[in-house]
Design brief:
The chain is of the alpha+beta class and 153 residues long. The protein has a single domain, classed as Molybdopterin biosynthesis MoaE subunit (Aldehyde Oxidoreductase, domain 3, Alpha-Beta Complex), CATH 3.90.1170. Helices cover 35% and strands 39% of the residues. Helix 2 runs antiparallel to helix 3 and helix 3 packs across helix 4.
C-alpha cells in the first residue's frame, strides 16, 4: 500500500507499470485518474474554471488516506493499492488524483477502486478553491458524492 500526497505531477504509465511489475500474481489493475475540469456545473449555473487550488493538512491527510485504503483492504483481497493525491494550484486538464488497485480479478479491482474514490471524495481532508472570471470560491461537497458513498455503508 502506497499513499502519496504531493504537489508534483505523476506519470500514469510509469506508476501503473511499476505496480504491474511488482505484482505478477495480479490478474487485474484498475485505475482512476481525476483531472481538473475547465467548467464546473453548480446549483447557480456553470462556471468557467481557470485554476483549482487544493489545500490539506500534512500528516493528517496521509493518515486519512491510509485509513481509506485499509478499509478497502478489509473488504477485498488486494495485492496492492497506490493512491497519489496532489495539492497546490492546478490548471484545467492537470491530474489531481490517481487510484490504482492490483488484485487477482477485475471485479475486485473495479469495486475497490470505486470504493476508494468514493471515500476520497467525501472523507479525505482536502479543501478546494476554484478561480473563475467572477473571482475565487470554495468548492462545496456534492450530494451525489454522499449518495455514492452510501452504497458502501
Amino acid at each position: 500500500m502506497t499513499v502519496k500526497v504531493q504537489a508534483e505531477d505523476f506519470d500514469l504509465g510509469r506508476e501503473v507499470d511499476a505496480l504491474r511489475h511488482a505484482h505478477p500474481e495480479a490478474g487485474a489493475i484498475a485505475c482512476f485518474v481525476g483531472v481538473v475540469r475547465d467548467l464546473n456545473q453548480v446549483a447557480t449555473g456553470a462556471h468557467t474554471v481557470s485554476a483549482l487550488e487544493l489545500e490539506h493538512y500534512p500528516g493528517m491527510t496521509e493518515k486519512a488516506l491510509q485509513t481509506i485504503v485499509e478499509a478497502a483492504q478489509g473488504r477485498w483481497a488486494l495485492a496492492d493499492v497506490l493512491v497519489i493525491h496532489r495539492y497546490g494550484k492546478l490548471a484545467p486538464t492537470d491530474q489531481i488524483v490517481l487510484v490504482a488497485v492490483a488484485t487477482a480479478h477485475r471485479g475486485d479491482a473495479f469495486a475497490a477502486c470505486e470504493f476508494i474514490m468514493d471515500y476520497l471524495k467525501t472523507a479525505a481532508p482536502f479543501w478546494k478553491k476554484e478561480s473563475t472570471p467572477d473571482g475565487t470560491r470554495w468548492v462545496e461537497a456534492r450530494d451525489t458524492d454522499d449518495v455514492a458513498l452510501a452504497k458502501w455503508q
